[in-house]
């Protein structure tokens, strides 16, 4: 936990002097739309007056729900209707809401590993069992999933939810093929599994449009998609959304949390709707894409130059590159020396369940630094490799 | 659930034409500090720049934590240190966090009834048992609590948490005496019970300072206090806080939800800290107090005039009056006619567990309307009583 109270830093990420820190999937602060959001706040308060400060509509601020429906019509293969959307306080709170309202104690949550390490923490805070499912370069392996589900059922367990990140995956950057998406959705529907699809990175596509979401391919109500504005606008607003069947959306909006407090983050959500309506949202997404594309390219280039024997599948979007180290170059030993050289990454182990077998790999985020800093980070990583190899 | 999407109302409360609706514990929108918060947003964004939009410190925005510590030094018998505070997305989310992180499946949550109906919903969304404990005009009855806890233990149940609202109670408006507070905290410590103290109404005291919180009287770590800015500033900001032992505060800040998303509502929290630092917070609390005191007085006056045979203990703070109806005047029959006459309230039943025995009483909120509207509402209630009595 971070320090608190007087003189504590405002943000979650606290810089370490002399270290270029690629461990954190945070946006480059210099890209964040401070002025535009300040102006949007002004306009939203002029437009709505005290209604922006009262308890908000339980499913979420209606103009933001409208915007989400309109935007997904452009970025996904199917647009939700307003009664299929619930605003959340970021993707994290969407996942927490799924765990609280849709899971029963003792049910099993499947996660295709490697996966977002803090989603493991969120589900782990609930009284469910966690079960890893293997994945390959194209994402979750369906035969393995079927085998794991069958084995669980044989043992009297209740596999209920699959948490997965099919698009611009964290930590690997990969996207699941359309063929496998379709098969996965069909398998979930057939097996009565609910998929919690983490769709956080949809807007950050650098080489063409993103693939359709699992949610868009599903006509059986087997998918709850969790979206976020943390990567497309600003994480500090704490805004995300869920798209689901009207039944699930209603269950969420009628749950105690939203019934008691009104819609999640009503003030910030209504500000964001105003911001989006002005066209600022689209301009910001373009700005992020242009910057992150360059950052990704420079990081990949640096890797090719400085770690020519490491393996990396270039990500088509998102924040992360996943690097498989060559034999003989231990990721933990490398991490210690890299810090001394002035750069940091996360080892693969962090993205597996406790006790799971992790590859000799690492994750680097290219989101938080400009290209020249990323280049310098990789030079330092290269120096750490040379030092480790003696 | 409220309507969604285009043309849906922004707020949770949707006015019903011709009805003065005293069923809702919402603030009077004309009292909300729209302009001051707009200016605070401007200043906070100038001061913090992109730091206000990044992932925030996990326990919550440090300047807001500082303010909470300083303010509780003035309004409570003991001030927390910063490591005892966690910012939440309103009291509702504080309760949800307590349920997720501090309760195990099958444990029993005790609630002294009547109690806040949506807290029942929040706990009910978690896999715990709910058990009512009787209360009298001075709040929870300790002998009854001891009897219920002993009976549960005898039956092999695990009473773990007591949810209680000792100060300006919702729905009854009453406050628990200092003597009973002290005894309650001692009992909880002795029995290994955790008390979730809902302290939402602390700032809204109309006849002198509020009593000390249970949290301030506890030196055994038996109390988690849940505070809110929904009633002292604006509900739409979705901001509240928890004060607890450093161990519990750390458990919350290190949980998956806050580790993944950063501090709750970082943007709004940092704006609120700026607002508070200017003195606007104190001015707003005074403004609310002055307005609500008049509203309370007018409602009580109207009751004495129009329902002289009903019983009501004048509340020293908060939003609510609780009216015990005279024999022969059924609360449900009265409710139906009252709506036709153009006013609404909530029947006592709503504040008890399902199947619990509720008195022939009702709750009215005096928070949302100016005095003359409250007077008119009670005239209409009087007309409904006359009509019901034929």
Please trace the helix and strand order of chain A, writing H or E for each element.
Answer: EHHEHEHEEEHEHEHEEHHHHEEHEEEH
Spatial extent as radius of gyration of chain A: 21 Å
The helix fraction of chain A, in percent, is 40-55%
Oligomerization state: homodimer
Arithmetic mean of pLDDT of chain A: 96
Q: Compute the number of helices of chain A.
A: 13
List keywords for this structure.
homodimer; 390 residues; globular; 15 strands; alpha/beta; 4-stranded antiparallel β-sheet; 13 helices; 7-stranded mixed β-sheet
Explain how this protein is built:
The structure is a homodimer. Chain A has 13 helices and 15 strands. Chain A is about 40% helix and about 15% strand. Chain A has helices at about 35-50, 60-75, 90-100, 115-125, 140-155, 180-190, 215, 245-255, 255-260, 265-275, 280-305, 330-340, 370-390; strands spanning about 20, 85-90, 110, 130-135, 135, 140, 160-165, 195-200, 225-230, 240-245, 310, 320-325, 345, 345, 360-365. In chain A, the strands form 4 sheets. Chain A has a 7-stranded mixed β-sheet, with helices on both faces. In chain A, strands 11-12-15-14 form a 4-stranded antiparallel β-sheet, covered by helices on one side. A two-stranded parallel ribbon of chain A has the order 1-13. The mean pLDDT of chain A is about 95. Chain A is globular and about 65 Å long. With about 400 residues, chain A is an alpha/beta fold. In chain A, strand 7, helix 6 and strand 8 form a beta-alpha-beta unit. The longest helix of chain A is centred in the last third of the chain and has 27 residues, at about 280-305. In chain A, helix 2 (about 60-75) crosses helix 10 (about 265-275), helix 11 runs parallel beside helix 13 (about 370-390) and helix 12 (about 330-340) crosses helix 13 (about 370-390). At the A-B interface, helix 1, helix 2, helix 3, helix 4 and helix 9 of A face helix 1, helix 2, helix 3, helix 4 and helix 9 of B.
């Amino acid at each position: 936990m971070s320090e608190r109270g007087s003189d504590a830093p405002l943000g979650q990420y606290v810089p370490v002097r002399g270290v270029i820190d690629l461990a954190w999937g945070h946006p480059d602060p210099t890209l964040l739309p401070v002025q535009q959001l300040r102006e949007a706040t002004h306009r939203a308060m002029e437009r709505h007056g005290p209604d922006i400060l009262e308890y908000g509509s339980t499913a979420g601020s209606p103009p933001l729900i409208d915007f989400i429906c309109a935007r997904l019509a452009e970025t996904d293969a199917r647009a939700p209707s307003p009664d299929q959307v619930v605003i959340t306080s970021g993707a994290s709170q969407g996942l927490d809401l799924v765990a609280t309202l849709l899971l029963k104690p003792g049910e099993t949550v499947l996660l295709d590993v490697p996966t977002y390490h803090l989603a493991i923490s969120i589900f782990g805070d609930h009284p469910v069992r966690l079960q890893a499912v293997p994945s390959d370069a194209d994402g979750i392996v369906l035969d393995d999933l079927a085998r794991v589900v069958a084995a669980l059922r044989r043992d009297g367990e209740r596999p209920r939810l699959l948490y997965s990140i099919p698009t611009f995956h964290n930590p690997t950057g990969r996207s699941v093929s359309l063929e496998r998406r379709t098969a996965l959705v069909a398998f979930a529907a057939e097996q009565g599994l609910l998929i919690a699809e983490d769709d956080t990175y949809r807007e950050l596509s650098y080489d063409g449009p993103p693939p359709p979401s699992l949610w868009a391919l599903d006509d059986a109500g087997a998918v709850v998609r969790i979206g976020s504005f943390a990567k497309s606008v600003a994480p500090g607003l704490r805004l995300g959304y869920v798209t689901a069947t009207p039944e699930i959306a209603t269950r969420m909006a009628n749950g105690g949390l939203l019934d008691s407090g009104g819609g999640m983050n009503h003030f910030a959500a209504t500000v964001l709707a105003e911001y989006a309506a002005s066209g600022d949202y689209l301009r910001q997404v373009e700005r992020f894409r242009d910057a992150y594309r360059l950052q990704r390219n420079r990081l990949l280039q640096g890797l090719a130059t400085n770690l020519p024997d490491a393996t990396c599948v270039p990500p088509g979007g998102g924040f992360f590159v996943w690097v498989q180290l060559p034999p003989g170059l231990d990721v933990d030993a490398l991490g210690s020396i890299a810090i001394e050289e002035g750069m940091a990454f996360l080892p693969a182990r962090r993205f597996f369940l406790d006790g799971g077998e992790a590859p000799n790999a690492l994750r680097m985020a290219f989101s938080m630094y400009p290209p020249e800093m990323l280049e310098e980070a990789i030079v330092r990583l290269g120096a750490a490799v040379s030092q480790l190899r003696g």
